[in-house]
């Protein structure tokens, strides 16, 4: 039976996923067989395993930290919010159905055997499993039915490290408040405290660490510095996107990337300027990890935008995936963005739709059986496809070669691509019987169901070259690195940071090594 360790946090966004990934990488470097586990994840950034099962993207990254292929055992329950109170519930990587929050809360204990079985399968091949909690372990109204924080720690008999986030302030109160609300048995499980995202001079913090002993006898396991990493995170807490109060449910908060688009536009005539890629930040955006690669490419600026003026400035407009295509299409219309996209398309601005965004670019979308809330709507009419929602979920990894393309995208014909599909809707081309192509283009518009398509360096490099040429940008074509290579490097960097900042002896002791 594997040993284990659980990382809990004082709240969402303290960095649990990344700390878990980093600790896993340290343990792997030290020669242990390790695996990640998160019983229940609420996220719209998901990943499809080789077996065609869907899990949270953060667990896929943690699997990479361990040198393992992602498996649905690492995240047996995934909750995908698709409305104010409704979510799609994924169990063992496959959809169980849509549920209201209240019903899920009532029934979730029945999923304990699935959680236990997944964990047991993982632990057969691992020396150590690092378990990630969710949100805060002391949401006292949720304590009774807990299957993801202390309830899980108890089931799996896991020691806990509790992390707080010093960046917004109040870290001592976060830690003490959390520990104080725990029962004595729960508190006993907490073997160390971590202060995460510390900026500045640690000697200024040290007196506080000693003073804290007066209030709490749990030792500090480390103060981890604020570190910028290019690694996938859970969408509900992303710092790539900042808060917009209009969407109250935190899991649906989709916001503007902190870079201001207007700034770099002043120099549009400068032929050495960066390329501007604008991703529409749909309220139910899913898999925006599709675009992480652009953050690492010199010469490309990536923006998540929701206003017409910003769109005017883009060299490439991308409509991303969405958990609720029809609702997001209505939103697009309400914001005037659909008209703007159609106008830009007439001006031959390149447009790409991924998955839900691809569906929107078509002629019509029908959800007659209410898979995503129901209805039949007209699409933007820029691609000749018709989409119909069914209860079958397409989940698969894809490796393909782009077909012979015409129009703007012709130079990306016959290019190998890979990625994964996650969709309930299926689309047919209405002007031919052939609907098997991995990408469909008409003039300046491209649509595909494949998430992760930009992670294929040759495809993205060709695309950037095309966009440079179209916009008269005279720059060297950037080197596009395989995302897994970037992520491996970042994981090693993270491990170095943790080796410097965590008391690893304490961590090993807590694990029982
Ligand atoms: N990943 C996606 O963008 C999904 C698109 C759409 N909601 C579907 O399920 O078909």
Automatic annotation (TrEMBL):
Domain (CobB/CobQ-like glutamine amidotransferase): residue spans on this chain: 277-457
One GO MF term: ABC-type vitamin B12 transporter activity
Keywords for this protein: Cobalamin biosynthesis, Glutamine amidotransferase
The UniProt record lists the keyword RNA-binding: no
Superkingdom, taxonomy of origin: Bacteria
Active-site feature positions: 355, 451
Residue intervals of the CobQ/CobB/MinD/ParA nucleotide binding domain: 5-228
Pfam families registered for this protein in UniProt: CbiA, GATase_3
InterPro entries given in the database record: Class_I_gatase-like, CobQ/CobB/MinD/ParA_Nub-bd_dom, CobQ_GATase1, CobQ_N, CobQ_synth, GATase_3, P-loop_NTPase
Family per record: Belongs to the CobB/CobQ family. CobQ subfamily.
Cited PANTHER family: COBYRIC ACID SYNTHASE, DETHIOBIOTIN SYNTHETASE
Protein name, per record: Cobyric acid synthase
Species, as recorded: Butyrivibrio fibrisolvens
